[in-house]
Amino acid sequence: MPDYPVRMGHLSTEYTGFPADVIPLQYQALLLTDERRMQAFADAIAQAVQPGMRVLDLGAGTGVLSYFAARAGGVVTAIECEPRVFATARSALRAATGDTVRILHADARDYLPDEPIDLVLCEMLHVGLLRERQVEVIGAFKRRYLHHMGGPLPRFLPEATVQAVQPVEQDFTYMGYTVPAPVFQLPESRQPRTVEAAPPQVFQQFFYSSPLPSRCGADLVFVAERPAVVNAVRLITKNLLTLTYDPAGSVDWTMNYLVVPVNEPVEVLPGDEVRVRFDYAPGDEIPVLTDGLRISVPAHAH
Ligand SMILES: C[S@@+](CC[C@H](N)C(=O)[O-])C[C@H]1O[C@@H](n2cnc3c(N)ncnc32)[C@H](O)[C@@H]1O
């Protein structure tokens, strides 16, 4: 596994000249080398796509998900808005699949297919549903599709997203120098800099085929399991790429965790309650989360 935090390349407009949700070509390899992500999508797409299915890939990037879908026999249309990424995807897809995949240089927010679709692939995801436009793009797609084609909606992959949060004590000191800045963590790695004050709690879960959330918010009380100075919270975002009902199962992709500092740390002992509150819109930048993040010890706990 790579030991760097995959997706740290999502630098904001000020640094790259690109809007935050556009991933320029130089950062696409971070996505391609994220083996957990790639394997989960390869498995889910192999499971969901049957030969002849009409598949739409919104925010196709280098086209890798379209490639997986074409390999499974899907008739694929891919949409990418960033010109260099689009050009690279077009030649990579041509090399891998001949003329099987149609790729269009377009904005996924306005694109309307000219015929019904069976499956929509959309990986415009960031931990916390921050920064990227997954919810906005799928919401706009659903409205346009229902208006122009009527129902039923296609299946979506991912099918659902589940988000959780937990209070933590994070060591933000590096060689004696303290910088409380957001940290990304690989879920499968040991995290010696993080003390989990309490286990995670789910604050949001939804299906992409159901009404989509307009906010990502939490107001949760945790019971501390160990002494800690809670100076951060950890966000956990798990995407259920495909769900099966008989037998019950899913192909999941848990994104890299995001640990964000709080402005006013609180000290807790085992058994103490600690309240975590935040509220932001899907697609907001990380500072919108951190600016509105509040940690407190409920008054009755004193
Ligand atoms: C996180 S990347 C994932 C790329 C690809 N789906 C994959 O899984 O490797 C999201 C992609 O969506 C593209 N994108 C962002 N906003 C878009 C929009 N409005 N229309 C089309 N593509 C968009 C970005 O440029 C980026 O290539």
UniProtKB/TrEMBL annotation:
Residues 55-139 form the Methyltransferase domain. GO terms for molecular function: histone methyltransferase activity; protein-arginine N-methyltransferase activity. Coiled coil: none annotated. InterPro entries: Arg_MeTrfase, Methyltransf_25, SAM-dependent_MTases_sf. It holds the Pfam family Methyltransf_25. This is Methyltransferase domain-containing protein. It comes from Dactylosporangium matsuzakiense.
